[in-house]
Amino acid sequence: MKLSDFDFDLPEALIATRPARPRPSARLLVARGDRITDARVHDLGRYLRPGDRLILNNTKVIPARLSGLRRRDSAQGETEARIEATLLDATPEGDWRAMIKPLKKLRTGEVVRFGAGLEAILLDKEDGQGVLRFNLSGEDFDAALNAAGAMPLPPYIASKRAADARDRDDYQTVFAKETGAVAAPTASLHFDDALLAELAAQGVAFTEVTLHVGAGTFLPVKVEDVTTHRMHAEWGEVSPAAAAEIAATKAQGGRVIPVGTTALRLIESAARDGTIAPWRGETDIFIYPGFEFRVTDALMTNFHLPKSTLMMLVSALMGPERIKDIYTHAIRNEYRFFSYGDSSLLVPDAGDAGDAGEET
After folding, report:
1. Residue 284 in contact with residue 277, Cβ under 8 Å?
2. Please, which residues bridge with residue 60 across strands?
3. What stretch of H or E contains 328?
4. CA-CA distance, 167 to 15, in Å (whole number)?
5. pLDDT by residue for the chain (360 residues), tens digit each?
6. CA distances to 60, 236, 271, 336 from 179, in Å
7. Lesser CB count within 10 Å: N end or C end of the chain?
8. Among 231, 218, 80, 221, which residue's Cα sits nearest to residue 159?
């Protein structure tokens, strides 16, 4: 498998910079076996059955993007430089790894002041990243970060506009609980409380798991032989209760449907021995064509970057040629792409799913 196998031409006009409102009004491409149906997320219940279980990632995005000043005494007097930092993940010692721009202007031991009483000292530089130690911790740190930080929008949005107050709501799921992500599980952004209640009323069940999405989800694949690519590690947990619910659904013949590639990667990490089990730790699971899915029966997901690991994942689920057909349809019909874009429901086996919407 070559990287070029997962490439496609995407018109820039299809890259969404704002989400649909209300959330479930986003478009939904339903691919069931060899069929494609054009629908809306609020139609999702038509394609689910009583006994199906949606797996929701309840991670909560932190306002991880910070802008501050570094001051330094020199022969010409005090000089200052603006420093941008995007927090990536906390170390066991409570420090933070961060992408820092420009990293070369910051020396080890120097302090950056971010506002709202929040400042950090650069402890180290490693692998093109910095390690920051903040002056606050616990609830004090959370409050200052909330005041000083901005939502860490993906690069393809951030390059077009700065994050603003709307993104505090738009880039967070309605069931976000566990703080720690620096990127949203974006397929879940299409749900609101009314849609969740409607699905529950028709017999669809929900299980929450936690995978703290890292900024590495946006890193490009740089190797031509995709099997040699190394994934970034992300922390996650499938609780004993969650594992039991998923196992019961499988035993009863229901379908397990992760909402988003993060939820899928997590439950497949917890099922590498063949059956789902409680799991907690870091996963760097890499899913590409040839992967054997243990628990996933279908997937709800947005449309992904060309040549990305997520394109490889959906190709593994549906088959590379089928995914090419699906993406050709999406582009031809002007679906909106990436984090704030439209969604898809990918069902490898059409089964007896409903037939609402316009089929092609």
Report:
1. no
2. 179
3. helix 320-332
4. 16
5. 899 999 999 999 999 999 999 999 999 999 998 999 999 999 999 999 999 999 999 999 999 999 999 988 777 778 889 999 999 988 889 999 999 999 998 999 999 999 999 999 999 998 889 999 999 999 999 999 999 999 999 988 999 999 999 999 999 999 999 999 999 999 999 999 999 999 999 999 999 999 999 877 667 788 888 888 888 889 999 999 999 999 999 999 999 999 999 999 999 999 999 999 999 999 999 999 999 999 999 999 999 999 999 999 999 999 999 999 999 999 999 999 999 999 999 999 755 445 544 554
6. 4, 12, 25, 28
7. C
8. 218
Q: Which two tokens stand for residue 37?
A: 């149906």
For the chain, the distance separating the N- and C-terminal CA atoms, rounded to the nearest angstrom, is 29
Which single residue is written with the structure tokens 């439950």? Answer: 267
237: Cβ–Cβ under 8 A, 6 or more apart, which residues? Answer: 209, 210, 279, 280
Residue 40 has phi, psi (to 5 degrees) of -125, 155
Residue from 182, 163, 186, 161 nearest 342 by CA:
186
Q: Using an 8 Å Cβ cutoff, are 290 and 316 in contact?
A: yes
SS3 263: helix
Query: Is residue 185 within 8 Å of 263, Cβ to Cβ?
Result: yes
CA-closest candidate to residue 301, choices 248, 355, 337: 337
The single-letter DSSP state of residue 36 is E
Taking a C-beta distance cutoff of 8 angstroms, is the pair 180, 59 a contact?
yes
- Any alpha helices (H) in 111-255, and if so which ranges? 138-148, 155-158, 165-170, 193-201, 240-251
Q: Residue holding tokens 């409380």?
A: 193
What is the sign of the dihedral through the CA atoms of 285, 286, 291 and 297? positive
Strand stretches in the chain, DSSP E: 27-32, 35-40, 53-57, 59-61, 65-74, 77-90, 96-101, 111-115, 118-126, 129-134, 178-181, 205-211, 234-238, 256-258, 279-283, 299-302, 343-347, 358-359
**What 3-state DSSP class applies to 306?**
coil
